[in-house]
Amino acid sequence: MTKGRGNKCRGGRLNSxxxxxxxxxxxxxxxxxxxxxxxxxxxxxKTALVKALTGVDADRFPEEKQRGITIDIGFAELDLGDVxxxxxxxxxxEKFVKNMLAGxxxxxxxxxxVAADSGVMPQTREHFEICRLLGTRHGLIVLTKxxxxxxxxxxxxxxxxxxxxxxxxxxxxxxxxxxxKTGDGIEALKSGLRELxxxxxxxxxxxxxxxxxxxxxxxxxxxxxxxxxxxxxEITDSAELSIMPMGRTVRVRGIQxxxxxxxxxxxxxxxxxxxxxxxxxxxxxxxxxxEPNVLRPTQIIxxxxxxxxxxxxxxxSRQRVRVHIGTVEALARVEVLNEPREIAPGxxxxxxxxxxxxxxxxPGERFILRFYSPQVTIAGGRVIxxxxxxxxxxxxxxxxxxxxxxxxxxxxxxxxxxxxxxGDSGLDISDLEARTGWxxxxxxxxVAENIExxxxxxxxxxxxxxxxxxxxxxxxxxxLESYHRREPLARGMPRETLRERVFSRLRPxxxxxxxxxxxxxxxxxxxxxxxRAAAHNLELTPEEKTAKTxxxxxxxxxxxxxxxxxxxxxxxxxxxxxxxxxxxxVFQLLLNSGEIIKVTExxxxxxxxxxxxxxxLRRFAENSPNRLVDVxxxxxxxxxxxxxxxxxxxxxxxxxxTRRAGDKRIVA
Length: 668
Fold this sequence. Notes:
By secondary structure, this protein is an alpha+beta fold. It is built from 20 helices and 35 strands. β12 and β13 form a beta hairpin. α15 packs across α17.
């Protein structure tokens, strides 16, 4: 990425604006704000034209003035009353096309500039194709230097330009001859710009705040300032934003549009933002100022690409290219998603771009591809999936089907496609925000539509398509049924065991969502530590009933002098065909029902015995100073040895019948 050049605002505009607090006309709802970009060959008069229109020399570097050529993008503003125009003047030299691309990405209207004394030249064609590939839909054609040619030559150049733009978005665009030197045609151009600006549809503002940064510099007394075209959303004073892909959180300390301080900037405005919490030297051209905690850095994106008809060669897999998206230039490898593994000149197809450095982007965002070397434009396209994964050869057909669904669907259909691809892993709302870049309202409506249609399920905050969710429910029921066949006397399957068996690689929210849904359908019964199928009944055989009665009686009759469990199990199965393992399962039923209380792994007591001892302990405490009891007193009270007394007291501690106080207990 290239650092923004310059450390001062051209003409002192930023310095004069931060303190004044004057509200710009850009704040008025009656003003229509558009971004107009120049395009054309070097020395065809683009910068002079902008100066004739605005009075501002967009060349801000001494080197540009010395050499007489534009090197980097420049900016100017024009107030036409009910229309505010932000101009982006781009360099025409072939060596600086990457700078041109940084300025061209956010324009609403292009001024295709052709010098009347030179006609259409190589960069005229390349700039025109770049604007077309970036999805520009509105523009004017301006013939400059008309004072240097006669009418006949002017007519020939006009015909040449018409031939260039035939069949494109500029096919019906007005051709306006001007002279920046004499001023001829400038007012007609302003009138044409105003008329066109009022007719240009408002920007699709569904995505969150994004300002691709084209410059960063420092203003004395204010600190870091970044500029760019606000392509979506709104930036308000004192807002907290993020600089991506670095992920740094910053605070807005001031905003300017059209050289004046404003309280907020909206999509479609050239915007300067004073930032707190960062030094301007840490910010580079190509970074994005955006809403925090929404977009995520990515290095793999799936795209639709159109290769230029006059491209020197096809776009092939494994080819290294330069990707220009927003204001960033990033290197990438191409994976063409078709069987020939290439896209011929003039054709359109799907590709995966594997970037060498992270970027942030949103679906629908346009970009340009240029050969790594020589650096010439080969193609352009749009992002379809900004969170892609690498594909194996066998996965390409499925990937193509999914990408076409994403490209052709409405918002609700896109959400459905994302969820279908996620399968039983599902996606939460932050995942969907990162994939779409949509504002909360847009996303919520698209998700709600899927929920209403039952094509998506909300599993405790994680969203799944209906089919994988239903599959998880079926797998859960099958696992429970299998467990009940293996363990017919178990009250239910341990909750954690079920989660590990079916949901081990999935989010806990999905497990909870499936359990909740099955409960609502009365297909399962979920308890604190176990889950069972609703149809599961504990039907004991006559011998199991006998063992259960013997075990219950043994611990009830024993009182506090309970037998060892192993001995009790042996007595319970005497004269039956049951083994100890089966007897242990019967005993577990008594534990599950609460009829037998587990005090330790060694000691088990009948519940009435424990309840009676607890009541006896409370009555004792009523006559004891400060409700205190020590071990000796408890032994005498219970009539047991220390072997039983200590485990029983610790059990009462756990159950909050008693509370340790040094060597004694306080009875609750």
